Amino acid sequence: MLKTLFSNEFMPHGMCYMWRPELLWLHVISDALIFLSYTSIPITLVYILRMRKDLIFSNVMALFGAFVLLCGFTHLLAVWNVWNGTYWLSGGMKAMAAIVSVATAYMLWKLVPTLKNIPTVEKLKVEVEKREAAEEKLQEKARILAIESKRLNDLNDELEAYAFASSHDLKSPLRGIRQLASWIEEDLHAEGFTLPEDCREHFDVMKSRITRMENLLDDLLAYSRAGHISGELTSINVKNLCFELLELLNTTSKVTLHIDDNIEDFKSFQAPLALVFRNLLDNSIKHNNKKGGNIWLDIIEKDNYFEFSMKDDGPGVNASDFERITRIFSTLKAKDEVEGSGMGLAIIQKIINKFEGSLSFASEQGEGLTVIFTWPKEHHLKMLMAAEVSQRG
Length: 393
What we know:
alpha+beta, two-stranded antiparallel sheet, 10 helices, 62% helix
């Protein structure tokens, strides 16, 4: 077979040109240049395919490269056959080129529908211009949003300063009224007067109202400050924190707190979390109508959050009142019956919202209330703090 292929028993191709040098070299040089060009094209295609492995037409490009390379070898053999008659070899190379060229033509025909859907350069230019215009508008809106965000932050700062000043200025005359009432009682006692029963009751009511007003001002100040994420992350032991708060709030020792001993310490902002627990414990204690009430606190660790669940065995809340109890100044009982400003759960809701947590309730009338809220873990808190710093510029 090989012997047949490389047999040169046929006449060399130069005979067709009558061995006229100018005509012979015209064909030889042209075929040689075509061979060199056809050889360089597959090399370039391979280089492109190695750089751009994401090209969707890579198989067709590889087939096209093989086709061009085989065509190049047919021209090389044309040069060879000018002086040699190895036409079997030349014919075999042409046959291989023919097979690959047919396959390439078939594959290209199959690609026609796909190629028709490829946007033209003009369409791509229009699309790019549209996207650049949209991006410019988006950047403009982002700049406006940043300006508005800074303006709102400045207004919040002014509102907080106003709330602090108002709280301080309003509490001063309240303290003066309380002091005057005490002086009147002392002066009357010193002069030997005994206040009638109804007058003493009026004095007590007045002192109670003053205390309520002071608590209301304190809660207003706490509410105004509840929308910030700042400070240092510290290690928190929830069990110790809650028992310390309970000791301050549970002055009559009428409730017992139950917390799992296996709760591990974690890093967080202590001030806002302590404010949430203080208000929850305060509500559970104030509204518990039993002599020996109970509060249970559980914690579940989730992906980015801790989920806390605080349950009491108090009177509970109707499900229809769940939305109402988180409104500011909203109470379910008269303030003379249960002392409170009606801001405890509103403060909790504001803090939880700021820390991108959730707050929900579960209860049946007479079966106690369960408050469930989520609190972010350390890495998520750092993200929130970074976003807060970025917003404030």
